[in-house]
Amino acid sequence: MTLLALAVGGRGLVDPAEPVLHADDEAFLRGRAAFETIRVYDGRPFRLDDHLDRLGASAERLGLPPVDVVAFRGIAREALHASGELEAVLRLYVTPGREGGAFPTALAMVSTLPPDLEGRRASGLRMISVQLGIEPGVRAGAPWLLGGVKSTSYAVNMAAELEAQRRDADDAVFLASGRIVLEGPVTNVWWRTGRDLFTPALDLGILAGVTRATLIELAAELGYATHEGTYTVQDLAAAEEAFTSSSIREVMPMIELDGKPLGDGRPGPAAAELQAALRRAATT
Ligand SMILES: Cc1ncc(COP(=O)(O)O)c(C=O)c1O
C-alpha cells in the first residue's frame, strides 16, 4: 500500500512524507494506541459510523481520552479529498501522545489498496492453524488481555502471518487451547455446511469485525442461517467451504488448511455470493 494523503487532528493536511509523531509517543514506545482500517468505495468510507464506534471503544479500553468523532470525520474527509482516490484504504489512529503529556494525536491516512486482492480471491488462500496460547473463555473475564480491542500491538498478528509465509501458506487461523477456532491475524473466519454458516462467537475475545456484522445481515437476506459459537478446528476442517472476512480483503475464500483441502479445495459458492452482496451493499 502507498500512503497518498495524511491529515492530523488540530493541524489538517500534512505532507505524507513529513514525520508527525514524537519519539516518546506511547503508540511507539509501548504499542498503546487504537486504530481502524476502512474500505473506501467510490469515495465513501463504508460503515464509517461503526468503525468510529469501535475506535472509541478501543480507545476507552486502552485508557485513552474519549475519541473526538467530529474531528475524526473532518480529518478523514480532508485526507480522502486530498488523495483524489475513489477506491482506497482509510486508516484512523488515535495515540496517547507524548509520555507524561495529555494530548492524544489523531491521524487519518489514505492509501492505495493492496495489490492483487482479486487474484487472491479467485485462487483462494492456503491457511495454517497456529496456537494463540490462551484458554477459549479467558478473555471475556480479563479486560487487560484486550480481547476485541483493535490496538496497535499487532506484532503477534504480523508474526503469525510471517509464520504462514515461512510454511509456504498464505495466512493463519488463530486457535485457543482445545483447538478452538478464533480468527485470523487481520480477519474473521467463517465456514459453511449446507445452508448453515458458522463463525466464532465474539465472547471468545475476537475482534467484532464490521464486515462480520455486515455479512451476518447479508447472509440472512440470502437465506443462510448463521451460527456464532465455540467450534473446533475439526469443525472448520470438515466444512464444505470456508472463507475469511475483513474490510480490505472483503470475503476471501480459504481453500486449504494445514495442507489439506477445505471442501473441494476451490473457492466456494457462499463466499462468491456474500462477496457480491457485500459489494452491492457498499456501492448502492
Ligand atoms: C484481528 C482481526 N480480526 C478481524 C478483523 C476484521 O475486521 P473488519 O471486518 O472490521 O475489518 C480484523 C481487521 O483488521 C482484525 O485485525
Gyration radius (Cα, Å) is 19 Å
Number of helices: 8
Which stretches are poorly predicted, pLDDT < 50 over at least 5 residues?
Answer: none
Ligands and ions found: pyridoxal-5'-phosphate
Number of strands: 15
Could you give the order of the helices and strands? EEHEEHHEEHEHEEEEHEHEEEH
Mean pLDDT: 97
Walk me through what this model shows.
The chain has 284 residues and is an alpha+beta fold. Helix content is 30%, strand content 29%. It contains eight helices and 15 strands. The longest helix is centred in the N-terminal third of the chain and has 15 residues, at 69-83. It starts with a strand and ends with a helix. Pyridoxal-5'-phosphate is lined by residues 37, 183, 186-188, 207, 209-212, 245-247.
Compile the SSE list and pairings.
Elements (H helix, E strand, L loop, with lengths): L2 E6 L3 E3 L11 H5 L3 E8 L2 E2 L2 H14 L7 H15 L4 E8 L9 E7 L5 H7 L1 E7 L23 H12 L4 E6 L3 E2 L6 E6 L2 E5 L9 H12 L3 E5 L3 H5 L3 E6 L3 E8 L2 E2 L7 H15 L1
Parallel strand pairs: 7-8, 7-14, 11-12
Antiparallel strand pairs: 1-2, 1-6, 3-4, 3-5, 5-6, 8-9, 10-11, 10-13, 13-14, 14-15
The structure holds pyridoxal-5'-phosphate (PLP).
Pyridoxal-5'-phosphate binds next to helix 6 and strand 13.
